Amino acid sequence: MDELRQYQTNKNWECMLSYFEKNTITITNEMFNIILITLIDTFNNLDKSHKTLTSIINYTEMNALNECSFNLTIRLCAKLNNTEKIYHLLNIMKTEEIQIKKRTITPLIHLFVETKNTELMETIYPLLFNGITLDDNDYILLLSFFGENQYVDKYETIFKLMIEQLDIISNELASIISFYYTFRVSNSTIHNHICKKCNTSLLRDKLSSYHKKCILDIICNNVAQKNKYFIEFIDSIHNNPRAFNVDYILDGANIGFFQQRPDKGGKLSYTNIDKIVNQLKHKGKIMIFLHEKHLNLKYVSDHNKRLIAKWENDNMLYKTKKGLNDDWYWLYLGIYLEKAHIVSNDKMTDHYYQCFHDKSFKRWRDMSQIEFNFTKTKVMLSDIKLATNGAVLNDFKIHIPYHSNTKKVEWLCIDTFNEF
Fold first, then answer.
1. pLDDT value at residue 279
2. Which of 216, 160, 175 shows the shortest CA–CA distance to 393?
3. Residues 50-68: tens digit of each pLDDT
4. Hey, is 141 helix, strand or coil?
5. Which neighbouring-strand residues pair with 190?
């Protein structure tokens, strides 16, 4: 293995081929992959007619190796423009139920676009809809190819797939869409959630009913693991909806420990929480979530006792139980209510990966979260973000966010003619 690693470091493709010839019988899967990686990396200097290249490709066919080996072999075949072997390897992967990933598809997209190989294109096209998430560069190639060659149906289908998959597109991709939708698209900006070009509101539901249910179930079942106290909290929401029907949900610990580390001796600022309460109480109903350890009156100053009493008298304080993460509570209620706003600087990345690995959660976060800052004289609360992680569709228009040349987010305003 050390010998192979040295060949790889030195980009010595000749020694790699020689090593394969001498050790074909004893070579391991990891060794074989190192050889393939080196051949791909040194392809420009490689002797493309070397007979051992065919043996290497055949080795993958004969041994039905893992996904990585198939991926690397197909990438090598793509560089060699050996479509016959590509078809055969893809068929083996299908037969052996080996997952075909984006890293296998992308070089094949490059190949059929560069060679204008329509047969390869027809082979790859159905694979694009098998749960593979393409990126901006893939869509640039695909939409340019289908637009240039007047594959209207395929262009429209790939365009719809792009809308589903990409949060925000590049300026180059926006230009390609504008070019092929010349009479249907305009560049626009959004002010107060309204498109300046067509006056369409871009406000939308934060979550579909399906996504809402999925996330709530996962918080309860997977994250909180059906803890009995958390189940009691959920039951209380259903049994007493008026008490929980609030406009603003405050992540009390996040606010109270602003610019502090509780694990390094930071102390919760009840005053900071109250400052935000005072700023929002005239705008709507508030609920503060705080862990019960912060509400033990034995360890709280008289001033803070008065603040706690005030919150309790105003029915805006919810004490979370010992041993449970208070984040689960405000996250669950925020998603359950949909229209409530979350006051927190928590980026929710932990929740995102644990709850629902989908851009629908990011959209909910962007459209729900109010971030805060404290200065010596005032509290500053951010505006609700217009979610730019995805297109906004209605019966007649589709709006797609993109990065302009100035790196600002602008929008394409496109007539749909009810096609979407």
1. 94
2. 160
3. 888 888 888 887 886 788 9
4. helix
5. 195
